[in-house]
Amino acid sequence: MDTPEKAVVYINKYGTAQCGPDGGILDGIPIERIPIATSLLKFASSEAFIVEAKGDSMETKIKSGDIIIAKKQNHADVGELIICVHEGKVLIKQFLKVGSRIILHSLNEKYPLIEVRQDLRIEGIVKNIIHYD
Questions:
Q1: Measured between alpha carbons, how far apart are the two ends of the chain, in Å?
Q2: Catalytic pick among 13, 54, 57, 106
């Protein structure tokens, strides 16, 4: 980055991402633009997007209604929290690998592991969580 960013930038919000079953689909059309202090970002604001968490599969770290700031990225390291599209559903999960298998892990133990057999697209990596209590 050659020039410093503004203190506040507007980041595209793309709806909800499911923390649990039955997520929606990110269609690339933002539903609104949310002002965010650049101090909450540790990367270029042009790479940022926002989704709202829905469901309880990522509790206690992420709760339904939390605002998730993510960095656009199509790959993940083991253990990172990701926003992904799997079988047509937008999900927030922990990315794991066991041998050559890819696993989507819910932090809430009441949900089973999802073994990815096909159709996984990583949209971004969770970088910040704004909790609403």
A1: 35
A2: 57
97 carries an active-site annotation: no
pLDDT of residue 59: 94
Structural domains of the chain ordered from first start = 8-130 (2.10.109.10)
What letter represents residue 2's amino acid? D
Q: Is residue 71 annotated as a catalytic residue, yes or no?
A: no
- Return the SS3 of 40: helix
Candidates 89, 79, 84, 94; CA nearest to 22 is 89
Alpha-carbon span 17 to 89, nearest angstrom: 8
Which residue in 71, 93, 106, 127 is the catalytic one? 93
Cα–Cα distance for residue pair 53/9, rounded to 1 Å:
21
For tokens 């991402």, the residue is: 17
0.85 surpassed by pTM: yes
Supply the pLDDT for residue 26. 60
Q: Which residues of the chain carry a pLDDT beneath 50?
A: 1-2
Contacts of 99 (CB under 8 A, 6+ apart): none
Strand partners, 9: 36
